[in-house]
Amino acid sequence: MTTRLYYTDPYQARFSAHVTRCAPHARGALVTLDQTAFYPTSGGQPFDIGALGEARVLDVQDLEDGDVAHIVDRPVPLGPVAGEVDWARRFDHMQQHTGQHVLSAAFVSTCQARTESFHMGADVSTIDVSATLAAEAIARAAAEANRVVWEDRPVHIRFASAEDAASMPLRKEPTRTGPLRLVDVEGFDLSACGGTHVSRTGAIGVIAVSGWERYKGGTRVSFVCGARALGAFDAMRDVQASSIRLLSVHPRELPEAIERLQNEARDLERQVKSQQGRLATFEAAPLRARAGRAGDRMVVVEILEGWDADGLKQLASAITAEAGHAAALASAGDPRLLVVARSADVTLDAGAVLKQIVAEFGGRGGGRPELAQGGGMHASDEALVEALRNALSA
User: Fold this and answer.
1) Of 47, 302, 305, 373, whose Cβ has the fewest other Cβ atoms within 10 Å?
2) In the predicted model, what is the mean pLDDT of residues 84-110?
């Protein structure tokens, strides 16, 4: 069974070990050691990466026999080896994981909401809490969590038997049996956990709640800690600066400016729709004049510039308002918009035609026998026109 150095010293990034096994693996080789500082994916925390000798560590996994498997990009000889954990990734995980313990404890103390699950993502971490919480309650918990961070409380790691742990004020009942590793945020939180943590809460830096949503009868809270919080602030600052420059407004005026632009866009959209409706009435006649006969119907197939999906729909409807017509109108450029329509007296299924075109050129869409529309098709003008003429003439 591999001795896990990170259990007692999560700050140890370099170590010496003995390779006990090296077996072929799809990504290179699977290596086990007599001891390791590499953390395997567990408890919502991702694995460490780094190096074993000349080999790059790509993944770290728990094995059922208690060993830790290191997936590396090349074989590592049996015997002594030097290991080095990617410290930037490890410390980031330590900040996020200890921050989660503090934030979860804060939700208990301020909202009586327990954490049901935790996931540490590459950019943002989440906890799912048991209650549906309002913004004010979430802000109160975040403020309490940051108070504990800035008090720079010690974070102790200790071990206890299951019997001893049963009498301790653990925030959450442990799922593991046997001896437990306990992470103790002094005077604030005590939890069973096998993850890596900072030694004092001040090293978390800050806990910033970045969003929340209702989830499975509770609330999913997204957050970032430490360097991630700084990165998120930098990104937000850059977005704000660009928006201010583009809109020529003060930062506090951004919401109002965006609302104004949205209203103007909706007004413009209504105007465009109205004008396209009027234009469709005039454009339908010359398009019908260019129609070709196919059996009992006149067929209109056109690639048109400057029409959006709603405009194509209005134009196709105007064409087929006259008896005996079938129309397929596509937008210019790539990918395509497409509308298929037919007059009430024409025995053609527009939806089936669209389905046939989608099967040939990709995209998606649907509709009724008299009118169907879709988008996302990739085809040359010539290929699309030929396919549409054949489909409408069948």
Assistant:
1) 305
2) 97
DSSP state of 201: G
Task: Please tell me the number of Cα atoms within 13 Å of 254 on its side-chain side.
Answer: 11
Q: CA-to-CA distance for 115 and 119, rounded, in angstroms?
A: 11
pLDDT for 163 equals 86
Average pLDDT for 61-76: 95
| Ranges of CATH 3.30.980.10 domains, the chain | 91-234
Task: Tell me the whole-structure pTM to 2 decimals.
Answer: 0.72
Q: In terms of Cα–Cα distance, which of 46, 43, 199, 219 is closest to 130?
A: 219
* Intervals of CATH 2.40.30.130 along the chain: 3-85
The fold for domain 91-234 equals Threonyl-tRNA Synthetase; Chain A, domain 2 (3.30.980)
- Tokens encoding 180: 């437990």
173 contacts: CB under 8 Å, gap ≥ 6: none
Q: How confident is residue 252, by pLDDT bands cut at 50, 70 and 90?
A: confident
- Would you call the peptide bond into 80 cis, given omega within 30 degrees of 0 as the criterion? no
H-run or E-run covering 373:
strand 371-377
Here the tokens at position 327 are 């129309």
The predicted model gives 217-233 an average pLDDT of 96
Domain 3-85 has CATH 1.10.1740.10: no
Report in angstroms the alpha-carbon separations of 306 from 86, 276, 311, 328, 331.
Answer: 53, 10, 9, 16, 8
Q: What is the pLDDT of residue 279?
A: 82
Spatial CA neighbour of 61 closest among 99, 23, 102: 23
